[in-house]
Amino acid sequence: MPNKCSRRLVNRPPFIVSLNRVDLITLSSVLTTFVAMMNAIEGHLYFAMALLFLAMTADALDGMLARKLGLERDFGRYLDGFMDVLIYLVVPSIIMLQWKFDGYWSIFILLMIACGCIRLSVFNQVGNVEDESSDEKKLAYKGMPVFWSIFILALMMILEKVVGLTFSHILLAVSLTLFSFYMIVDKAFFKFSSLTQILVLTLGGFIIFTVFALQQFGIKSPINILLLALYLQVPVVIGGVLHMICVKRNYLSTLVIPIHEGWFGANKTWRGMLLVPLLTALGGLCMWPLEWLMNQAFGVSLLSQWNIGLLGLIAGIGYVLAELPNSFFKRRIGIQAGEVPVDKKYWFIALDQLDSAMGVAIAYWLMLGIPLETAWVYVISFPITALLVKQWLFNKNLKSSAA
Predict the structure, then answer these.
(1) Same domain, yes or no, for 194 and 250?
(2) Which of 61, 87, 144, 244 is most buried, most CB within 10 Å of its CB?
């Protein structure tokens, strides 16, 4: 008969920590910062900066979602701190060095890294503080937050186009000195609380440096891989939102017939199988104004070689077909339709996002011939988009859960 000690060993989880959905958003910065580093080393500095702004978006969202979903914990704050070292200290330093801010200039980079590490260590210890100078008792940062490194570097790279490289380096050296000093000063600094403000700044920076990258390298810029992967998600997002509206209002109720309840459960109906491809085709057609604008601005659009209505239809077919094996697998192990098991909950949530992402990416690759690199970026980035869209649908009462 096993004793208590052996039972504890049997029930012990296989990994050192269980990740939740917010942790996965935080870890997405590993990919963006790694690709940013590689491109910075290869001289694609504007593309690297655009990726840093994307990483900053994920960094801003994970904390907000953790508080909203009640998933705050010490591990999440420590993980976020390590990602901050990559996003705001390591990768910006590499970009600066590749931007010829080297030699004696690198002293200012060393100063920024040292003070930034001190600042992040203090944050991990004390977290946010209250701004005593405000009557509303708003949360604030203790010391200037490290994320300003990206805004400082971005501004100097933009100024280079006006004042030249040497003067922009002088301004950067002065800015990094002041920045380093204020990171370790015992003073409350403003904390963004509005998601709209954060998205305007981060996505605005992403757009600006995307345009710079396209101007520098044109259609051969590596940023086109990322742009195409994100752009190809638009028909699926539009189709998914329209489908949830149809489900909520119970349109075409005569088609709410399970495909095979024993195999796939009651939620996989003929309405979804038929309606989703048609709605994603409509989502593809909705991209026509964007295509027209890109043609006017750059003389070429990302989807000029494909029929956008057919593109949306193919995405929808790939989406619904890829969900069937996942549903079949869950029915076989006893998970009912619409349920998320408590044990290994977030692994199943991740699987629910990846199945459709892989289905759409494979459909795009086989039927439309999109580059394989774009297909992989699509698979990696789509789960984050899907979770954000599902959270929005849940907030608008169009979905029963945010998972």
Answers:
(1) no
(2) 87
